[in-house]
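Per reviewer request, we include the raw input and output of the structure prediction for the construct analysed in the revised manuscript.
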Amino acid sequence: MKQYDVAAYIWPSYHYEPRMEHFWPEKDGEWYTVRRGTPRFPGHDMPRIPLLGYQDEADPAVMREHVELAREHGINVFIMDWYWYENSPCFERQLNEGLIPALEGTDSKFYLMWANHDVNNLWDMHTDTTYNEESVQMTGRVDRSVLEPMFDRIIKKYFNLESYYRINDKPVFSIFSYPNLIEGLGGIEETKEAFSWMRRRCLEKDLPGLDIQAIALLGSGGSEAGADLESGTEHQTAKALGFDSATSYQHAMDSGAEGDYVTWANKSFTYWDDYAKTFNIYYPHASIGWDNTHRNPSMKTIVHGSTPDAFEACLWRARCYLDTHPDQAQLVTINSWNEWTEGSYLLPDMRWGYRYLQAVRNVFG
């Protein structure tokens, strides 16, 4: 059977992160928010209850269970949402203490998606604070003096690991918000030079290079991702930066935050050809759904109609794309392994059991 690399994003918030205790005071991360999920309107699929329980995902035994569960269903790569705020890492315990030890002795891999977006009060569920996108509490923007030691640390700590995912033997490093990166570094030319330095730095450290992967952004998701680009300039900006490849993070970044699942997902698929032209190579993506009402008690809109069968159809669409692009890595990305608070997770729950995982196995397993 043809081999595919099936990669699921991990949102590493389901463990104790001291820097975020003011958001989640019960000291087990964003389970605080998941436990408080209630229906916001008639027919709303709440609460979301994890079949495996409210696990500590920084525990290597828990993550070994997850790695094996993923392997059994055709998922062999994890994309770790990775954060750097106030010149230090954040949410890193799940990766360092949980996932990396759990990958030992397997052929499963991981790579980093630098989630360089700002932190506002979106995660704040224990006060009466009204959600405010502009209420920046920590910025994801960095200048060159921060970028260089941060990236050197990434090379030293992760890129040489046997479990780190590579394409053409080059470690893959994904960047969530290239608009925010440009804002922090001071412009497009400054960002291009930073990319050149990052590639040179990998060569200096005896790596064969670097695959810089964008989270594709040409549609309506600019403000979601961070800084806004001037309308109509996304194509030119992305091309100018010279990414090696791109994939997507969430269909919501192209198709908005509400509507019928099939229509919503299909709209995202219409961007794939443009993404391939703009970013050199595009790796197809499938999202399970979108429901951010856990974090927004006043929100009344979600993506509705998501089912394992509809998700499986999206996976077939992704596989067909790969089969018609045989000269690129056979990589597909999925949102996500565990985005409970956004209603987009493969892990089994009390409503669907293991059916979303089984959908992956039906197509790629």
